[in-house]
Amino acid sequence: MALCAALCSCLQPLRAQSRAQQEQLAVQYYKSQEYEKAAALFAELFREKPDNYCYSYYLPCLLETGNYREAEKVVQRQMRQNPKIQRFPVDLGWVYEKEGNSTKAQRQYDRCIDDAKSAQALKELSAAFLNYGLTEQAIRCYGRIRTMTGEPSAYAFELAMLYRQKGDYQQALHELLHWAAEHPAEAEVNSVESELTTWIADDEDKSRHDLVGKTLLQYANKNPDVPVYAHLMLWFTLQEEDYPSALKQAIAIDKRFQGEGRRTYEIATIAADNKDYGTAIAGYDHIRKSYSEFSPCYEAALSGSIHTRYLQITSQYPPEMTKIKQLSVELDSFFRQHPLRDANLGTYLNRVEIEAVYMKNIPMATGLLEKAIETPGLSAKGKAACKLQLGDIYHLEDEVWEATLLYSQVEKDFPNDTIGQNAKFKNAKLAFYMGEFAWAKAQLDVLRAATSKLIANDAMQLSLLIADNESGDSIDNALHLYAKACYCTECREFEKALQLIDSINDSENPSLTDDILYLRADIAIQQQQYSDADKLLEQITTQFGDELLADDALFMRARLQEERLHDPLTAMDLYQQLLKQYPDSLFAPEARKRFRALRNNSFKTQP
């Protein structure tokens, strides 16, 4: 007896090992689509131990080999042994479906739904239907839950996803908006916005886009007291980059729901960031006129209005000095009434720039910055920003060592922060301007791994320019002149920069030709000579298509056509050209985005 027990105990591991090997072989046959062999092995395994693991392989093997009778028996066995599991009755219907008996399959699906007695059972049943792509039946499950619970909006988000899978975007949107009204928290509304974004992202014929816009407008108009619909309508106008409409919507939201100008301020700031200065100023001024000076957004709106008008005025060349002087008076008045702090530092630095760059009052500008650096309420990073600005003024005044000292202080204080990396980049550029190319390149190569993508890209471009052009005395002479021209361009001394460019002998450094053309184009753009800039950039793209600046020039050309020359069709062609010729360009994602936006606008304007 003892011997028998010992033998049995020895055989059990062997049997377990044998089963594991058999399972492994069966799965291998299944994956290689050798269903006959897999079915034979799984049949033996299933008879020995009819668990769900074997079943999940065995049933598909039977269906693939057309053994529907055996498949039906296997499923019915599982149903008898597991009466509470919803998957198996659906599996039975699928067996009938695969057999070609769709009427019998539909009766089985109906029976599944009718027999489910709880919301949980119906949810499990819905998942089982979805396993076979039976979206309509899954939707019916949630409809029955609503009938059972008496809650007409139950599981609206789940139903929205199902209708979307089915391709019924109209019904999906209705469910999504019902769910949003009952879940108005910011996180839930963000999830709705995220879902709708995926709908309209690759909407070639704009049908989903138009549906979303039309339906949101209907819901917002019919339900004026439901904030979430107004907020979603505002979100949609922002996707359209229709900032005037977004501002009107924001003003209405603030008025209806006592927002105290918060939404209006937010939209005005977004418009300013996107260079729609008129809309931004209108938004800020509305807050100033509509709310008291003690309201939470009043001071920020006043500061924002001044800052935006500064951007608007200085974006013109040459800027109107009358407006510059008027703005200087406003800035002086603002900071007599409001203390300097991080929130209005950008506006304060505008004041400094006016004094230094436009009024040429360097002592006043440096005095303002030195005062700011000593201000107790300003953060360490805010003071660092002032040091960078002070360094820039020393740079303008050709006091290079003073500038380098300030940049180095900021770099040391914030070694792992964007502001520190920006200081390092400014130092590297100064070294480039001074002709210290090897040291500049070493610093730039470090910055190519900067956390700021903009700094990393700019550092890479300048490093490659040095590497491409510094290799001998004659080439160094041309590069020295080019570097000085870049310095003068940054100081807005355009005539001097052009004189330096003209003095460069092309034969000394032919590889610098495309860089010189690009610099000329940059100067032309800053002087608002857009047609001249376009011709210079076109020369780069046609004559130097294999050089480093080719994709930069093509992207800048496209933006010029879009934003300044107002030729969207040419802009679209240029963006598309960039995507085809330079698919790995750093500008490719932005070019793709702009191309789609222009294409969508062309659809919108078609009769």
Low-confidence stretches: 2-16
DSSP summary: helix tally: 32
CATH class of the domain at 471-605: Mainly Alpha
At the third CATH level, what is the topology name of the domain at 471-605?
Serine Threonine Protein Phosphatase 5, Tetratricopeptide repeat
Which second-level CATH architecture of the domain at 471-605 applies? Alpha Horseshoe
Q: What level of helicity do the residues show?
A: over 70%
CATH H level of the domain at 471-605: which superfamily? Tetratricopeptide repeat domain
Q: What radius of gyration results from the CA coordinates?
A: 34 Å
Beta strand count: 0
Proportion of beta-strand residues: under 5%
Largest sheet: none
- Summed over residues and divided by their number, the pLDDT gives a mean of 89
Q: How far apart lie the N and C ends?
A: 94 Å
Structural class: mainly alpha
Tell me the overall shape.
Answer: elongated
